[in-house]
TrEMBL record:
Keywords: Cell adhesion, Muscle protein, Repeat, Thick filament. This is Myosin-binding protein C cardiac-type. GO terms for molecular function: myosin heavy chain binding. The keyword Repeat applies.
């Protein structure tokens, strides 16, 4: 599954350093982080997913100010 997103409309006055991506199963409450190093691109190939299971994804932008709210 390839996940794509847009950069944030507002960056708090500091450039975006990268992104953090998380996923969870649709009926679950537990989010799992998919990357430990910041992602530099606006897409990511999510792996180790179970065919037929519905997932939700969310992404955070990170800069010198901190981490954004998830999208």
């Amino acid at each position: 599954c390839t996940v794509r997103w847009e950069p944030p409309a507002y960056d708090g006055g500091q450039p975006v350093l990268g992104y953090i991506l998380e996923r969870k199963k649709k009926k679950s409450y537990r989010w799992m982080r998919l990357n430990f190093d910041l992602l530099r691109e606006l897409s990511h190939e999510a792996r180790c997913m179970i065919e037929g299971v519905v997932y939700e994804m969310r992404v955070y932008a990170v800069n010198a100010v901190g981490m954004s709210r998830p999208s």
